[in-house]
């Protein structure tokens, strides 16, 4: 794991700990368009100024320099117990996104 991945890993762990702390309760994926993917999964979003805010669950996104780093981090977190599928088939899929699974979200 390189420095970029480690920094995002720490941010994801802090995010999970701040919102329940149970990895299996969260979905993780890789995409080139995190807002579109969160909406696809049933996460309701709206804008508040410059921020995108989720209405029905906690959600976060992080960017890595390349697809390989993003996929490796997603695989690592899935191996630790987070839900998620491979996804992100485009070479520009450098965003890791995560949300807390609720009855309103789709995995």
Please describe what this structure looks like:
The protein has 107 residues and is an alpha+beta fold. The chain has one domain (3-100). The protein is built from three helices and five strands, in the order H-E-H-E-E-E-H-E. The longest helix has 16 residues, at 3-18. The radius of gyration is 13 Å and the shape is globular.
Layout of strands and helices, then pairs:
Layout: H1 3-18, E1 26-31, H2 34-40, E2 45-48, E3 51-54, E4 59-63, H3 67-79, E5 95-100
Antiparallel strand pairs: 1-5, 2-3, 4-5
Helix pairs in contact: 1-3
What is the gist of this entry?
By secondary structure, this protein is of the alpha+beta class. It is 34% helix and 23% strand.
List the defining traits of the structure above:
5 strands; 107 residues; single chain; 3-stranded antiparallel beta sheet; alpha+beta
Through-space gap between termini: 27 Å
Helix content: 25-40%
SS-based structural class?
Answer: alpha+beta
| Series of H and E elements | HEHEEEHE
The number of distinct structural domains comes to: 1
Q: What is the average of the pLDDT values?
A: 90
Total number of strands: 5
Largest sheet: 3 strands, antiparallel
Which range does the strand content fall in?
A: 15-25%
How do the strands line up in the largest sheet? Answer: 1-5-4
What shape does the CA trace take?
globular
Q: What low-confidence regions span 5 or more consecutive residues with pLDDT below 50? A: none
Radius of gyration: 13 Å
SS summary, helix count = 3
């Amino acid at each position: 794991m390189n420095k970029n991945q480690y920094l995002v890993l720490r941010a994801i762990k802090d995010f999970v700990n701040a919102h329940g702390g149970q990895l299996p309760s969260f979905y993780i994926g890789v995409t080139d368009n995190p807002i579109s993917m969160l909406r696809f999964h049933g996460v309701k979003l709206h804008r508040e100024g410059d921020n995108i805010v989720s209405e029905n669950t906690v959600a976060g996104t992080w960017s890595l320099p390349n697809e390989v780093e993003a996929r490796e981090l997603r695989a690592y977190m899935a191996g630790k117990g987070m839900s998620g599928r491979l996804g992100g088939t485009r070479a520009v899929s450098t965003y890791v996104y995560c949300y807390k699974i609720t009855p309103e979200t789709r995995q």
